[in-house]
Amino acid sequence: MKEKVNVTGVPETMVQTLYARAKETKKAKCKDQR
Question: Which domain of life is it from (predicted)?
């Protein structure tokens, strides 16, 4: 499920953290599905 996230006005460092967490979560889900 894809969800559109509005990050207008969020500092770049916060976006980087959010991206890293999302990437890790996606990686963890792939391992669980195998």
Answer: Bacteria
pTM above 0.90, yes or no: no
Contact by Cβ (8 Å): 15, 7: yes
For the segment 1-34, what is each residue's pLDDT rounded down to a tens digit?
Answer: 688 877 788 787 788 888 888 888 887 666 655 5
In sign, the C-alpha dihedral spanning 4, 10, 14, 15 is positive
Separation of alpha carbons 9 and 20, rounded Å: 19
Q: How many helices (H) and strands (E) does the chain have?
A: 1, 0
